[in-house]
Amino acid sequence: MKAIKNITYLLLSTTLFVGCSKDFLDEDTSGFQAPNNTYTTTNGFETGLTGLYAFARLEFHTWNNDFFSQGATPQEALQVGTDIVAIKQTGTDATLAPFSNYTLNPTSSYVRNYWKFAYGLIGNSNLILSALDNPNIQWKDADQDPKRVRATAEFFRAYAYRYLVSLYGDVPWVDKVSELPRTDFTRAPKQEVIQNMIADLKYAAENLPENPGSVEDGKLTKWAAYHYLAEAYLWANKPDSAIIAAQAVINAPYFSLNNQRFGIEKDLSGDYFHDMFIEKNQNRKSGNQETIWAIQLEYNSQGGGDLYTDWGKRAWVPFYAQQTGFLLADSLGGRGLGHIRPYEWWLNSYEVQDVRNSEYNIKRDWYHNDPKSPLYGTKLNITEQIKESGNVFATTTKFFYGKTADNPAFEGNMKDRVKIRLAETYLLLAEAYLQKNDPASAASTINVVRARAKATPVLASQVNIDYLLDERARETVGRGNA
Description:
It contains 17 helices and 6 strands. By secondary structure, it is mainly alpha-helical.
């Protein structure tokens, strides 16, 4: 973990150097790692790429980095204020309130932080891309190495711009490192930025590794690029191209929707949808064939998470330990604070037989678990007041996580975070068909996902963008920044 952090700090420091005077840059770097003495060999570029992965993970680190240190739940800021979740009435994370009551301004924490994070990742990607111009690099594989390095850096640049255009609209397109200070940046039209993203993602799709079994956990393959390429084409109003990109992923021989039990708890009670969100089940080695890209945040693992990593649990898991008759327990999700809760429409939108609606995936019933309480073993009557307090409410179990043996009040949610899975690619494909005014094909595509969930097939006459958004919520709730 320390090595990964050191690489991140190296890249952060080089980003700070960009924009300073040339005289300031004229320094002797022979005694420490810097771009001019690191990006000279394949191994040096591998160090830089490791830094990009580490930088991308900063989005899920809380309180201990330069971007998301001013609030507990940055990911949830992208969901409050929508029709998915409500924030609790008292004691909520104050950084979420402006997003819920629409009082945002340029100083609101995540309005500022996502901008800084995205341009930090862009700056580090551009450093690597600029270094590729050196004709004297010592490559191990002079044909493939530079393509893979460029593909990875361009993927992360497009990944960062994906946040920028979706959150801010028109933004400056920056694709080069400036050695001098600049104050003349202007916003490029959103569609122009999207076209540049498409170019980056096309190169990444053509040059990243193909076989996910040939790369380390968390490393990119071309299929991640194709998935985001399909999305970018949708944003560019090019549904035919989006269909081609999405079908490339769906038709690849490496992925399938999980419809059988797998992973660390496959012989215990549960179901195959729940299996995807259990610790250690996010990568292919667990038997998970649906994950296309997962951010590596695993507990107590080199390069993974630490105490302050991914506090999504604290937002989604109720503050039940504050309710009379309850004690902290891993089986109840660990130490949550109940900052947000799903709206009732989501809870009521599932059919009874839908696997996503099972007791393993949505916890509706809460039983007092304190043996010293006279209420022990009885079911809590969840009133509106209890729900609004954040103490107890029905919620997804995707974020349930505890480490009672190590620390009963463990804050983090240090499971690897799936960024792209195949079900989402199907839903992008369905959206492309809708954009083409082909609801029959959209319904057929959605029904692949619904069939896995054992839900009733939807009719073409029922499918529109509202239905698709509802289905996305049923399938991916909690993934507002995916």
